[in-house]
């Protein structure tokens, strides 16, 4: 972990009041996954694969009156459980989390996971909790699993790149690999889907589809295979909405490669797939590294 000048920044070393730390956490688009529940939230999680994006969430944490655990996203109060659970796990009595996001909430970008992980990184520095990176990822992962808002985003956002989650769980339990590639990524968001509603329902069908997709990607760990398996997963898991299906067809007809973001009514495509299909997408890239702490704004 380094500061903005590339110098090592010791986690838990306290902060300079004139340079409050911020954390940048890449958005994470899951292409396919399996749900792997367990009584221990650090063991629970998911397998699957996704893309960490250069668009993401920037977080800052400041002390607040005792009993205060507030989250403010893009200037508006946000009722979200995962970052509050992080603060309680770190035994922070009063804190206010300020975040700004490049991507929309509840649309398949892992914003909840980003808020949890960014809160852990910043609170560790601000309140001198003296935890390691793996410990902080574990706290954030467990908080999001308990909140019901995600299963694998936190560990993927901590890694960056194109993570493949081979075994579920936080560091010490989960096993990860990755696709050694980079790409321009385009995306369009058509609406919101509730991750909590899907994860709290019957996940047998999607987990069966996710296992098939993971097996195929492990055999051929390429970006093209990742998107193709993601497209098949959405269809087999019966998560594809009509609007998302139409946009993916547009991309395919323009010889592009696109799929649905899990879990959101969002279509992502490699290269210029959405632009070539006549859409007006947001544009970013695969983020090569994971979440990081910096001094001041990124």
- Element-level helix/strand string: EEEEHEHHHEEEHHHHEEHEE
Query: How much helix is in the residues?
Result: 25-40%
User: Uncertain regions: pLDDT < 50 for 5+ in a row?
Assistant: 1-13
Major sheet size, sense and barrel closure? 8 strands, mixed
What does this structure look like?
This protein has helices at residues 81-89, 111-126, 133-147, 153-159, 195-199, 204-219, 223-236, 242-253, 273-276; strands spanning 21-36, 45-63, 69-73, 76-77, 95-101, 163-167, 175-178, 184-191, 258-260, 265-270, 282-285, 292-295. With 298 residues, it is an alpha+beta fold. The strands form 2 sheets. Strands 1, 2, 3, 4, 5, 6, 7 and 12 form an 8-stranded mixed beta sheet that branches. The protein has a 4-stranded antiparallel beta sheet with strand order 9-10-8-11. β9 (258-260) and β10 (265-270) form a beta hairpin.
Q: In a nutshell, what does this entry contain?
A:
The chain is of the alpha+beta class and 298 residues long. It is built from 9 helices and 12 strands.
Blueprint (SSEs and pairs):
Elements: E1 21-36, E2 45-63, E3 69-73, E4 76-77, H1 81-89, E5 95-101, H2 111-126, H3 133-147, H4 153-159, E6 163-167, E7 175-178, E8 184-191, H5 195-199, H6 204-219, H7 223-236, H8 242-253, E9 258-260, E10 265-270, H9 273-276, E11 282-285, E12 292-295
Parallel strand pairs: 3-5
Antiparallel strand pairs: 1-2, 1-12, 2-5, 2-6, 3-4, 6-7, 8-10, 8-11, 9-10
Helix pairs in contact: 1-2, 1-3, 2-3, 2-4, 3-4, 6-7
């Amino acid at each position: 972990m380094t500061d903005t000048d590339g110098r090592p920044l010791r986690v838990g070393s306290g902060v300079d009041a004139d340079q409050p730390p911020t954390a940048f956490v890449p958005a994470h688009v899951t292409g396919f996954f399996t749900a792997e529940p367990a009584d221990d939230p650090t063991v629970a999680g998911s397998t699957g694969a996704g893309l960490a994006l250069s668009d993401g969430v920037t977080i800052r944490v400041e002390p607040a009156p005792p009993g205060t655990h507030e989250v403010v996203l893009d200037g508006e109060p946000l009722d979200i459980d995962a970052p509050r659970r992080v603060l309680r796990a770190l035994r922070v009595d009063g804190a206010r989390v300020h975040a700004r996001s490049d991507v929309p909430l509840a649309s398949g970008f892992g914003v909840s996971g980003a808020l949890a992980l960014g809160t852990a990184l910043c609170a560790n520095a601000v309140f001198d909790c003296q935890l390691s990176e793996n410990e902080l990822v574990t706290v954030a992962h467990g908080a999001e699993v308990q909140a019901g808002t995600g299963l694998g985003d936190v560990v993927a956002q901590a890694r960056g790149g194109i993570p493949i989650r081979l075994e579920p769980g936080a560091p010490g339990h989960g096993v990860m690999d990755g696709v050694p590639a980079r790409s321009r990524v385009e995306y369009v968001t058509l609406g919101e889907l509730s991750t909590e509603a899907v994860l709290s329902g019957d996940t047998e069908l999607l987990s069966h589809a996710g296992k098939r997709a993971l097996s195929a990607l492990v055999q051929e760990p390429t970006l093209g295979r990742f998107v193709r398996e993601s497209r098949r997963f959405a269809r087999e898991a019966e998560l594809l909405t009509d609007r998302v299906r139409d946009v993916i067809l547009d991309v395919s007809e323009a010889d592009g490669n696109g799929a649905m973001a899990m879990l959101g009514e969002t279509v992502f495509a490699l290269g210029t797939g959405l632009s070539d299909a006549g859409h007006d997408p947001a544009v970013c890239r695969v983020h090569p590294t994971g979440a990081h702490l910096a001094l001041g704004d990124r």
